[in-house]
Amino acid sequence: MLDATQNSSLPARPGVGYKAQHYSDIMENPGPLGWLEIHAENYMGDGGRPIAQLRHLSERFPISVHGVGLSIGGEGDLDADHLDRLKHLVSWLNPASFSEHLAWSTHDSHFFNDLLPLPYTPQTLARVAAHINQVQDTVGRQMLLENPSSYLAFAESTMSETDFLRELTQQTGCGLLLDVNNVFVSATNLKTSPQAYIDDFPLEAVGEVHLGGHDEDADETGAPLLIDSHGKAVVDPVWALLDYTLARSGPKPLLIEWDTDVPAWSILAEEIARADRALALVTS
């Protein structure tokens, strides 16, 4: 088990999910941007323009590597080839932070293009902890685990999500990635309090905070149903929940995620500036 006191070396400044179309804007006019996130699976090849750009960016900005394909919560073994490619990326890039999702996306030989939820039971806890330990031992560094967006609750769960995450940090030494939009989405869908979730979250283990947009829909009863999409601007209630969170956690590395319908850099720059103002409220 890794030492739980290991912390991300990302600065407590705004970051953004890197997209290649923004390379020139980021290099020429980053504004208050302090760091970048990449998706691991996009950079597991050898050479080419994406790797060359990433090398240039890493000379100027701390990089966070965010994985989406390990299936940490899956019932089967982790994909050894995928883990080897991840190890290679982390070895040469030497990122400031590495994270994955509390979810599963594989079953036997099948891969699902979704991050699927887990029941919170002792059996699931043991399996996820074993996978986290395997990943951390392989890449030789602490992993941050992201809270999911939820659309249903499992009747067989015997632990709350926050207790489940807390226990994982204690058993494995992993850190946590707190996605505030996911908290808002889950609380709306499950009709719970997002503030109560934050109050119970192990904020001392948080190495990154994420913000993103979501889509609005309705369920069969007409009740609001939110879908985590990363395809829109962050809405005001999520910004308010961020303020609530930072007032309790203090400043943290804060990422703007926008992965679909990616806008012009000027739009992302506005989101980055707003994140910078939110951080200023707890650092002044």
UniProtKB/TrEMBL annotation:
Identify the domain of life: Bacteria
**TM ranges:** none
Q: SUPFAM superfamilies from the xrefs?
A: Xylose isomerase-like
One Pfam match? MbnB_TglH_ChrH
Q: Which PANTHER family match?
A: UPF0276 PROTEIN HI_1600 (PTHR42194)
Q: Which NCBIfam families match?
A: PRK05409.1
Q: What is this protein called?
A: Uncharacterized protein
What organism is this sequence from?
A: Yoonia maricola
